[in-house]
Amino acid sequence: MPKPANPASDFFGFADLLSDAERAELAAIRDYLESEIKPLANTAWDRAEFPFEAIEKFAKLGLAGYAYPEYGDGRPRGELFSGFLSMELNRVDPSLAVFSGVHTGLAMGSIYGGGSQEQRDRWLPDMAAMKKIGAFALTEPEGGSDVAGGMRTTARRDGDTWILNGAKRWIGNGTFADLVVVWARDTADNSVKGFVVPKGAPGFTATKIEGKIALRTVQNADIVLDEVRVPEADRLQGINTFRDTAAVLARTRGGVAWQALGVAVRAYELAREYAVNRVQFGRPIGGFQMIQDLLVKMLGNITAMFGMVVRLNQLVAAGEGSAEQAALAKAFTTTRMRECVAWARELFGGNGIVLDYEIAKFFADAEAVYSFEGSREMNTLIVGKAITGHSAFV
User: Fold this and answer.
1) Is 226 contained in some domain?
2) Do the beta carbons of residue 249 and residue 109 sit within 8 Å?
3) Are residues 265 and 318 in the same domain?
4) Which residues contact 274 (CB under 8 A, 6 or more apart)?
5) What tens digit of pLDDT does each residue of 172-200 get?
6) In whole angstroms, what is the distance from residue 50 CA to residue 217 CA?
7) What mean pLDDT do residues 54-60 have?
8) What angle do CA 26, 30, 32 make, to 5 degrees?
9) Do 222 and 258 belong together in one domain?
10) What is the reported pLDDT for 243?
11) CATH code of 213's domain
12) Is the domain of 250 the same as that of 301?
């Protein structure tokens, strides 16, 4: 017998692909995020401050260890569960989800994928427990999309020490991270290498970037490295070329697609709730054709996004997911997300530009999600090369 129409954002029931235990765990996490994290979100975003009490709250959930079970609770989670978890985090607050993603996906992921066993054992237990917070320093003031070929930060070998010089920009968690994974070009062989730099290292300075209109809670930093000395023991032993760096980004790029989904889902939920309850001309505006048209377009986008990211995670779980598929997912979902938040803000009318109704924050934050981890244009070129066999990169 057909199921009745469901107003929820998961209109086609993709969550049914999870096990009963996984759905129960996600529901418990969602309730915790709603009660413990969401109340911090709007105030922190408005003030452009980081709510440090959130770290302890995240630590209680143990989320940082989920992707690395040997350093977490020992219980492996599937790729699909990880995707839904990312969606839930972003559905509550994209800024705090970025804090978590930078720490867990980029910083811990770099050490897990590029470090020696000794390095993993040295750093990851405290990072999984969130006793130490990580950051990922790749982007530079003059090198965003072009950072692979245009990286200016250098690493010079001096005996058992490396000397780092250069600058990084847009480094999430950079103002307070205990460990920063810094990417630099070896002056001897011109290859890119990774280094773990501790907070307080002489010559390392981090300055908060002010005046942002998106992800305001995220403490992005401008970082300067002036003769920073790093022991060989703190160079990530498995990172020898930019291809190794790109492998980290390929893993997290699919995560950004789930992030975009979470933002779009929240925008739709807020818009639907508002449409059902907002009364104009003597009736809820949800009963007007043009409002229903906006909601249905949003739901269509979300359903298409669900289909793409779920299939991507299934492929990754089977060891078949490619960097090109992740690039297409990132480009497609962030574009559809951008449409969704714009339609949602439109539905709210004037109320859509104030924080009281929450949609303004998601509308602004979507612009950052659309831009980072490879712009739409760069990801398009990655996919374009895969389908034509011709590189259009300059």
Assistant:
1) yes
2) no
3) yes
4) 285, 347, 348, 351, 357, 359
5) 999 999 999 999 999 999 999 999 999 99
6) 5
7) 93
8) 115
9) no
10) 77
11) 2.40.110.10
12) yes
Question: What residue numbers bound the domain in which 123 lies?
Answer: 14-128
| pLDDT higher than threshold 90 for residue 21 | yes
314 and 283 fall within a common domain: yes
Residues 25 and 115 in one domain: yes
Judgement on whether residues 292 and 348 belong to the same structural domain of the protein: yes
Kindly tell me if the per-residue pLDDT of 202 is higher than 80: yes
What are the tens digits of pLDDT across the range 317-347? 898 888 899 999 999 999 999 999 999 999 9
SS (H, E, C) the chain: CCCCCCCCCCCCCHHHHCCHHHHHHHHHHHHHHHHHHHHHHHHHHHHCCCCCHHHHHHHHHCHHHCCCHHHCCCCCCCHHHHHHHHHHHHHHCHHHHHHHHHHHHHHHHHHHHHCCHHHHHHHHHHHHCCCCCEEEECCECCECCCHHHHCCCEEEEECCEEEEEEEEEEECCCCCCCEEEEEEEECCCCCEEEEEEECCCCCEEEEECCCCCCCCCCCCEEEEEEEEEEEHHHECCCCCCHHHHHHHHHHHHHHHHHHHHHHHHHHHHHHHHHHHHCEECCEEHHHCHHHHHHHHHHHHHHHHHHHHHHHHHHHHHCCCCCHHHHHHHHHHHHHHHHHHHHHHHHHHHHHHHCHHHCHHHHHHHHHHHHHCCCCHHHHHHHHHHHHHCCCCCC
pLDDT of residue 3 exceeding 70, the answer is no
The domain tally of the chain equals 3
- Which CATH number do you get for residue 104? 1.10.540.10
**pTM over cut 0.85:** yes
Q: Rounded CA gap, 366 and 362, in Å? A: 6
Nearest to 317 by CA among 87, 83, 17, 79: 79
**CATH of residue 317:** 1.20.140.10
Q: Which of 102, 128, 154 is at the close of a domain?
A: 128
pLDDT tens figures, 106-150: 999 999 999 999 999 999 999 999 999 999 999 999 866 667 667
Residue 181 falls inside a structural domain: yes
Q: Is residue 214 part of a domain?
A: yes
Half-sphere exposure of 72 (CA within 13 A, CB side): 18
